[in-house]
Amino acid sequence: MRQIPGMNGIVGTLLNKLPGDVWEVNEIQDLKESIEAGGLELLGIESVAIHDAIKAGTAERDHYIDNYIQTIKNLSACDVHLICYSFKPIFGWAKTTLFYENEDGSFSLVYDQAVVDEMEPSEMFKLISSQSKGFQLSGWEEERLNKFNGLVEMYEGVTEEKLFDNLKYFLERIIPVCEEMDVKMAIHPDDPPWEIFGFPRITKNLFDLKRIIEAVDSPYNGITMCTGSLGADPNNDLVEIIHEVGDRINFVHFRNVGFMGERKFKETAHLSTEGSLDMYAIMKALVDVGFDGVIRPDHGRTVWGEVARPGYGLYDRAMGITYMQGLHEAIIKAKGE
Ligand SMILES: [Mn+2]
Fold first, then answer.
1. Does residue 133 register a pLDDT over 90?
2. 52 is catalytic
3. Inter-CA distances, 219 with 213, 226, 254, 318, Å
4. Dihedral of CA 72/74/78/79: which sign?
5. Cα–chain center distance at 276
6. Count of domains in the chain?
7. Has residue 3 been placed in a domain?
């Protein structure tokens, strides 16, 4: 990664941590040192997962929020100042095909609502794991399927309003600590940005994002602008969203999607002409609102025969970051800054 031009850091995670675990200082320090040994900086964590008790608002939530607060303090002690997280019950991201072959022989992830409509939620686990090719796919682990029925029970009666209240409760407890520790939070939008299997989703659009940042009005309570997640819904105007919530964008995921039909899309190469989003307009909006935080290329295709976790190949994301930097340089120079 260090050989990609202009790369100075990465966002990382501790893969062995379960939601609710405290991240110990020595573990974070080991991660940090392994990255620094490669000539890069650890610029943030993606993600520190939220325990279901916090999302569902059960009696144990305070215990897990205490753990989360300890993790925030430990990250700060290691000079890490950005946490990406999501607040989605049961299903984080969802796709129906992990290796859709494009005309050029590359592979993309595809989401098709028509396929999901024909399935039970538990079948979704089988569909995803049957295509994982042995890679760990966060949120779709075997152990989560085993707990699936318990999770469904846990979320019974958790409406959109209730889920939002539980997020607010969590934020009200952690954000004062974030302010003190200088650790910025960045909530990731829903992927896809609409309800699936009837579970509530509260990070789908501009309305949702505004409601979240207004719930606790602090620059430490911010969002991850994931263009591919929000952009999968053609009703989401990404330029408008960036202008509306610009000062609260703490992290950016830069990627494109291509619409294939009603609630059907694929993850394409980053270039505007390869998908349905105007990546130039998105980058320009980010520059216009003065975004100066961490940005990374997100997802992409599998190309050149690479054996990679679906959506996380190195090659296409390396091309993506180079494109990103080209857009950024051109926009900055055109502004005469
Ligand atoms: Mn993303």
1. no
2. no
3. 9, 18, 21, 30
4. positive
5. 20
6. 1
7. no
Question: Choosing from 111, 188, 191, 208, which is the catalytic residue?
Answer: 188
Q: Give domain status of residue 156, yes or no.
A: yes
**C-alpha 139 – ligand 1 centre gap (Å):** 14
CATH number of the domain that residue 103 is part of: 3.20.20.150
CA separation for the pair 144, 235 (Å, rounded) = 32
The answer to whether 299 is a known catalytic residue is: yes
**188 catalytically annotated:** yes
User: Could you tell me whether strands 97-101 and 82-85 are parallel, antiparallel, or unpaired per DSSP bridges?
Assistant: unpaired
The predicted structure's pLDDT at residue 15: 87
pLDDT band at 219 (very low <50, low <70, confident <90, very high): very high
- Structural domain contains residue 1: no
Which of 144-153, 164-173, 263-272 is least confident? Answer: 144-153
Q: What is the pLDDT of residue 35?
A: 96
Per annotation, catalytic residue among 208, 253, 316, 323: 253
Gap from CA of 164 to ligand 1 centroid (Å): 20
Say whether 298 is catalytic: yes
Task: Measure 77 CA to ligand 1 centroid, in angstroms.
Answer: 26
